[in-house]
Amino acid sequence: MNLYINQNIPFVSEALSDSCICYTNSHIDNQYLISNNIEALFIRSNEKITTELLVGTPVKFIVTATSGTNHIDSCIDHYSIPGANANSVAEYVIFTISKYLIANSLNSRNLTIGIIGYGNIGKLVAYYANQMGIKVLINDPPLLDEGEVFPDYVEHVRLDQILIQSNIITNHIPLTKDGKYSTYNLLDYNKLRLIEPHSLLVHSSRGGIIDEDALKNIATEKNLALAIDVWSNEPQIDFDLLKLAMFATPHLAGYSYNGKIKASYIALNYFEKHIGIIPDYSILENEFQQIKIDDTVNFSNINDIYTKLDEYRKFSEDNLRFREIVEQNRKSYADSFKLIRKNYPKRYESLKPPRELEIIYKLFGKVI
Length: 368
Known about the structure:
The structure is a single chain. This protein is an alpha/beta fold. The protein folds into two domains: 2-80 and 257-289, 3-Layer(aba) Sandwich (Rossmann fold); 83-255 and 294-347 and 349-368, NAD(P)-binding Rossmann-like Domain (Rossmann fold), CATH 3.40.50. The chain is 40% helix and 12% strand. The strands form two sheets. Strands 8-7-6-9-10-11-12 form a seven-stranded parallel β-sheet, with helices on both faces. A five-stranded parallel β-sheet has the order 2-1-3-4-5. β1 (2-5), α1 (12-16) and β2 (21-23) form a beta-alpha-beta unit. The longest helix is centred in the last third of the chain and has 19 residues, at 257-275. It is globular and about 60 Å long. The mean pLDDT is 94.
């Protein structure tokens, strides 16, 4: 069987090399898929899958090593991997919170965090925030309607209450433009104006959930601290918003090496179940064994959290490099955005989630 595998999805080619022919070309088009008889695609969000791309091809399986599927417009069976990078994104949020607390000499036990979206990432952010002594409010209408039972350290409230009552606000929801739970421009001017002055707003879900023009106005008016990882027109960015932000990165919050290995493992599992070919999982399991999480973080010490996360993930370096490269390449923000993501080095997680919130355990009942 012939496969296309994005070159930034680690160890998938190796795990399937004995049973499949794996292609890792940097660009795919309709003719490439037909001429190489490609039947399965392992992709990332930078690859747009359309009906036109697939017409006349033998492709029958698609998996994206990302949580979202906005880049896939096809009726062919396809899978996404929500949760693989959840701990990676949660670390980004906790780091920016720590930075905000230190910069403003704030005591975490006097603060409230409002988490919009209580999925894989939201649950981890809530868990870590609670460990820090921060009061946790959440808002997730779909889960509430499904009868979700929330842990006793979180309180489900209306969205307006999140915005009014929280000192720290973060969103972890998919971008949807239709239906009962549409999230496109969910945080528009009328919502953003409810946020208290000097609050922290962390945006690491999907561009398009926050109205960036409204955010610039409100952030200036209310002196908000902004941590921005996702942008409405990626890979284009809003340079004025970048300048306003306390912290800014080019959609890297979920880019930990741990998250990438988990995504590969889950993608291979979907492939096995759909196609019937058994990958060599030992390659990834051995790699997991080489990754040691130092779970000695003292959650009562904000400086310790900040230092440990920055040591492992080098978030401060990412922020500075992003700004420098954008400033040097003002004619093409998009090129700067893509360059950093393409050449991003291995970065390891340092916060260890509880077993019940670990995605591999939730899916497969084991910790690897």
